[in-house]
Amino acid sequence: MAKDFYNTLGVSKSASQDEIKAAFRKLAHQYHPDKPTGNEAKFKEINEAYQAVGDPEKRKKYDQFGSAAFDGSPGGGQGFGGGQGFGGFDFSGFQGGGGFEDLGEMFGSMFGGGGGRHAAPRGSDIQVDADLTFKDSIFGVDKELHLSKFDACEKCEGKGAEPGTKMKDCDDCGGKGVKIVNQRTILGTFQTKAACGTCRGEGKVPSTNCKACHGDGIVRAKKTLTVHIPSGVENGNTLRVRGGGEAVRGGQSGDLFVRLHVKNDTRFEREGSTIYSSLNIGFTQAALGATVETEITDGAWKLEIEPGTQSGTEIRVRGKGVPAGNGRGDHVFVIQVVTPTKLSREQRKTLEDLNL
Ligand SMILES: [Zn+2]
Ligand SMILES: [Zn+2]
Predict the structure, then answer these.
(1) Phi-psi region of 315 (alpha: psi -120 to 50; beta: other; left: phi over 0)
(2) Domain 269-354 falls in which CATH fold?
(3) What's the CA-to-centroid distance between 81 and ligand 1, angstroms?
(4) How far is the CA of 125 from the centre of ligand 2 (A)?
(5) What's the number of CA atoms in the CB half-sphere (13 Å) around residue 228?
(6) Whole-angstrom Cα distance, residue 53 to residue 67?
(7) pLDDT in tens, 43-100
(8) Residue 153 CA, ligand 2 centroid: distance in Å
(9) Domain ranges of the chain
(10) Ligand number nearest to the C-alpha of 172
């Protein structure tokens, strides 16, 4: 069925590229699955539409041929996640600016992967989970990840040949890298070309296989990878590390997706770029004002309480919240005035005399 991508993005057919981009950003923010207003189906629709008309070249195609030009499996279906349940369309460095550019790129790889090309193999993507403390999610952290994955064989540099030995023409395809395959159908016999399986389309094979990888060019290895988690990430965000996935011989490694789990911190709560914490103060402090020792995510903090502060008052500390753009959001203390429950005889007498 034909889809109206302009309609999906809420722009007119004559909208400028900038207008389309702005509309996409706004909607993507609104419908991002991690947001309270999120809607995954809608989010995907928006992305599909943006992929088509957000790029001037593809937009021309769309204007000419309609959405049919964008249907079907992109580039042999090996573009993204191998269909193994990577459900989140997330940003890397979402708060750090530039996140959307990467998002565009991410979706870009799903589309228009060049149909019919002699596809170089691509390694599988890997998804791992990483736990973060609340503070790490605010300020960013270098995280060590332990992976067991296929990597290029170090001994033969991924070539599959024992070092010092030569490559030779593949016997199976005579060095051409392709084989003619006869396909019999009811309409007759067709000849199609297929990449030679023996040499993986390379035309050459090692005269002596590498002893470390048995000629595969890849070995399964335990790897420790240090990934920089940018500041301001949120629970459920996924980072993409290009080329961090499984290696494959004669092709590009897959990508590594790191799904972030931010642990709760009983002291702090986050809403967008604002951090909230509740602060209990005494009766007298509230009435007379005080300087209270408390903490923000950066560490210890001295908070000024004005005389006559009521319970529920919010005191905003500017620039001590979540890093966003070039600055930081705010930290908001929600004041709770604690009414004393146990009083000594003198205290009781004094309060009665005050009769407040
Ligand atoms: Zn061959
Ligand atoms: Zn090797």
Answers:
(1) beta
(2) HSP40/DNAj peptide-binding domain (2.60.260)
(3) 29
(4) 22
(5) 5
(6) 10
(7) 888 888 888 888 888 888 888 777 766 654 333 333 333 333 333 333 333 333 333 3
(8) 5
(9) 269-354
(10) 1
